[in-house]
Amino acid sequence: MTKSIAIIGGGIVGATAAYYLTRFGHQITVYDEGTGQATSAAAGIICPWLSKRRNKSWYRLAAGGAAFYQQLLTDLEEDHQDTSFYHKSGALLLKKKASSTEEQYQIGLGRRKDAPEIGELKILTQEELTQLLPTLQQQENALYVEGGARVDGSSLVESLLHYVQNQGGSVRHEKASLIKENERYTIQINKEKTSYDVIILAAGAWLPQILEPLGWEVDIRGQKGQLAVLQTDDVNNGHLPVIMPEGEIDVLPVGDGKVFVGATHENDKGYDLTIDETIVNQMIKSGETLFSRLKDAKLIERKVGTRAYTSDFSPFFGYLPQQETVLTASGLGSSGLTTGPFIGYQLALLANGQETTVSSSDYLPDYYLTFIDTNIC
Ligand SMILES: Cc1cc2nc3c(=O)[nH]c(=O)nc-3n(C[C@H](O)[C@H](O)[C@H](O)COP(=O)(O)OP(=O)(O)OC[C@H]3O[C@@H](n4cnc5c(N)ncnc54)[C@H](O)[C@@H]3O)c2cc1C
After folding, report:
1. Ligand 1 within 6 A of CB of 34
2. Same fold for the domain at 4-40+154-220+311-371 and the one at 86-150+223-307?
3. Of ligand 1's atoms, which has the minimum distance to the CA of residue 48?
4. 8 lines ligand 1 (CB under 6 A)
5. What is stated as this protein's family in its record (predicted)?
6. According to the model, what pLDDT value does residue 376 have?
7. pLDDT one-digit tens code per residue, 238-261
8. Which fold has domain 4-40+154-220+311-371?
């Protein structure tokens, strides 16, 4: 049975859910206001396997998300959509201490049994490293991860939503509100109200703004992330791996001489979207300390977006507690380009009345969303 489904949020989660639900034969409307969208500001590194985070359910989602890209690429190719958003560039993890590189190597070897997408793992000699990155300024220990990739979030969303629109779905670049009428949730834009069979809230960091006016307590906070885009004269840099030094600043050669340097994790700045030139310059400086080539680079763009975090840093997805027609996902934090398509797909399966492919009980929204005020609406 064809369902009418509204999705608030057209970032990576909402767009993937929209894509698969369109494939399943449903009628989709995506509402995406777009301001501060994390997906379009993201660096786009996909390399979750060597993380030392102890949260096993997060790792299952992140490794599952990295693996899921293969299915997404196959599906989009089958649907004749552009897949140039994904580059299996490899990743290079730099460490000051050889023992830290060895430790990561062992973690990778252990996890590769269940995650063959990791591919080759290799500790590079100084000579190999210099050959790969001739302008690297310092001695570093480097672990190469063949399966590492980079994803252009904006282009990915564009491909997904292009398919949705081609199949008769609609994408409205407007802010939508959720209202409750006769015990049923409905979408409202200005004074226009529309009912749907299913509503999916994929609003990233802005889930509290949608649910709190309706009496929900939402365990989500925003975190500001800034990223600098530099232009170098190395126009053939698209083949280079993404570079993950120690600390929070990564360096991504993305082709045509462009290099992403970032990103910041500014908890105290929350939803603020102003570009802070001092912080951008600090980021660029730390990139330059690593790569001399960046000293002559020109700053051509600054990106800023808001990540969503829960208090225990875990993402969630599933039905809104006690609701059978409203689904949601949020809290993807700094790895949402990795987990996002997988989570969007799980939401699509649920809305289509199917079982999820990852145990949803570990990621229930119930842990993060509480209905507290029955008097509102
Ligand atoms: C600077 C930066 C770098 C990052 N780098 C990486 C990385 O290298 N690797 C990685 O895996 N992840 C990375 N991330 C994290 C990743 O980008 C996010 O976790 C992910 O994009 C979140 O996707 P989302 O769909 O949940 O939310 P979003 O992409 O934020 O999308 C939510 C959308 O909902 C819309 N919306 C909200 N409320 C409404 C409303 N009421 N009506 C209409 N529309 C609404 C918003 O405008 C927005 O467009 C990075 C994030 C940032 C900010």
Report:
1. yes
2. no
3. 11
4. yes
5. Belongs to the DadA oxidoreductase family.
6. 56
7. 999 999 999 889 999 999 999 999
8. FAD/NAD(P)-binding domain (3.50.50)
37 alpha carbon to ligand 1 midpoint, in Å?
Answer: 5
Ligand 1 neighbourhood includes 45 CB (under 6 angstroms): yes
Which amino acid type is present at position 252?
A: L
DSSP H stretches of helix in the chain? 12-23, 38-41, 56-78, 98-112, 126-132, 153-166, 207-211, 277-290, 336-351
Which segments of 167-306 does DSSP mark as H helices, in order?
207-211, 277-290
Q: Which atom of ligand 1 is nearest to the CA of 44?
A: 8
Both tokens of 186, joined, read 């409905």
- Report yes or no for ipTM above 0.95: yes
CATH of domain 86-150+223-307: 3.30.9.10
Q: Is the CB of 305 under 6 A from ligand 1?
A: yes
CA distance 10 to 23: 17
pLDDT digits (tens, 9 = 90+) for 97-149: 999 999 999 999 999 999 999 999 999 999 999 998 888 887 789 999 999 99
What pLDDT, on the 0 to 100 scale, is given for residue 291? Answer: 87
What are the residue ranges spanned by the domains of the chain? 4-40+154-220+311-371, 86-150+223-307
What mean pLDDT value characterizes the chain?
95
